[in-house]
Design goal:
Layout (H helix, E strand, L loop, with lengths): L2 H10 L2 H23 L13 H26 L3 H27 L30 H7 L5 H9 L2 H29 L3 H28 L3
Length: about 220
């Protein structure tokens, strides 16, 4: 997005959009500052079976699909609101996915680990979906709010408002799937930076769910 196109989008956004974008920008600054001030403050390095490592691995998978969907709709939408939202999701989650990857490198841990969400088994049931090691990968992906291959294909085949509405529906479900993972890390984890990132996921994605719900209403999505 060029500076000119960004400015044009900002001029066309309603006031509540501008307020939300400022709030998300503040969260982004806190995220960046925290990355360089709190990482490594924990007394012990997380191990490969730690909730921090599980969160880092699973959230990279989760963010990967959000980035893919956001870039798809960014290239095709005619809506300035959807384009700005998609750009923010793609850029913020790309940056966060890079940090999660870097955590595992710094901890000398493999990027792949046990079954998806198995690290959440000890979390309070109010903070996770109840996934256990016996659950299939498809079950875990569904509980994480991930879109199926057919759903992604349907969004890509759609055009105009129909595509925008499909994107919003998929992304709301996707964001809701991230919240229990972040809440589980807040319940189980101990690394200060990891806890800060988890809280940022809760705050940012909750705000974006509210925004996307409002956009659905504006577009009269079914």
């Amino acid at each position: 997005m060029t500076a000119a196109s960004g400015a044009q989008a900002a001029r066309t956004l309603p006031p509540w959009w501008a307020v939300l974008l400022v709030a998300l920008a503040v969260i982004g600054v806190a995220f960046a500052v925290g990355r360089f001030t709190t990482f490594g403050a924990a007394s012990a390095t997380p191990g490969t079976d730690s909730p921090e490592a599980g969160f880092a691995r699973d959230m990279q998978v989760h963010h990967g699909q959000a980035i893919e969907l956001a870039m798809d709709i960014y290239r095709t939408t005619d809506s300035d609101d959807i384009r700005v939202l998609a750009y923010d999701i793609a850029t913020s989650q790309s940056a966060q996915r890079g940090e999660l990857y870097d955590w595992l490198v710094k901890w000398n841990l493999p990027q792949a680990g046990g079954p998806l969400m198995s690290w959440m088994a000890d979390a309070d049931t109010s903070h996770h979906h109840g996934t256990d090691a016996a659950a299939s990968e498809d079950d875990a992906m569904a509980q994480m709010g991930m879109a199926s291959a057919d759903e992604v294909a349907a969004m890509r085949a759609a055009t105009g408002t129909a595509a925008d509405c499909q994107f919003l529906g998929l992304m709301i479900r996707h964001h809701r799937g991230a919240l229990p993972m972040a809440q589980a890390l807040l319940h189980l984890g101990s690394d200060p930076r990891a806890l800060q990132v988890a809280q940022g996921v809760v705050d940012t994605q909750s705000a974006e769910i509210d925004l996307m719900t409002s956009l659905q209403q504006q577009l009269s999505c079914g």
